[in-house]
């Protein structure tokens, strides 16, 4: 068994009402944030940019890092990066990749967690706190470690 951790990166986007962008995958039942796996030779920020462009049709560099989360998984360990995607002033520019995404919706932050699997809900909550505080948070399985 390969014990190396898989890395993935995603972004939190907001509309002018402060709602969070969630996407509905075609291949699993729960909503998520835009993002995906870091490919060999790619940095997490490069992967985030590529995934956002592939999934949403938006060519945007990610903002600052909000959260790094180590998470165990049945398939192995994962290291997950969440960047601030910033404000989307014109959601009409979103062009979903039909093969992977069937829908998107801006959801109030306090309601977003109800659409996500628990581990992503914890990560989202921590990322929202980090964004508000202007800092970066380290998590293990979605739980912040206190210094």
Automatic annotation (TrEMBL):
Residues 3-130 form the Nudix hydrolase domain. The keyword Hydrolase applies. It holds the Pfam family NUDIX. The keyword Phosphoprotein does not apply. Its cofactor is Mg(2+). GO terms for molecular function: hydrolase activity. SUPFAM superfamilies: Nudix. PROSITE patterns: NUDIX (PS51462), NUDIX_BOX (PS00893). Keywords: Hydrolase, Magnesium. InterPro entries: Nudix_hydrolase (IPR020476), NUDIX_hydrolase-like_dom_sf (IPR015797), NUDIX_hydrolase_CS (IPR020084), NUDIX_hydrolase_dom (IPR000086). PANTHER family: GDP-MANNOSE MANNOSYL HYDROLASE. Belongs to the Nudix hydrolase family. This is Nudix hydrolase domain-containing protein.
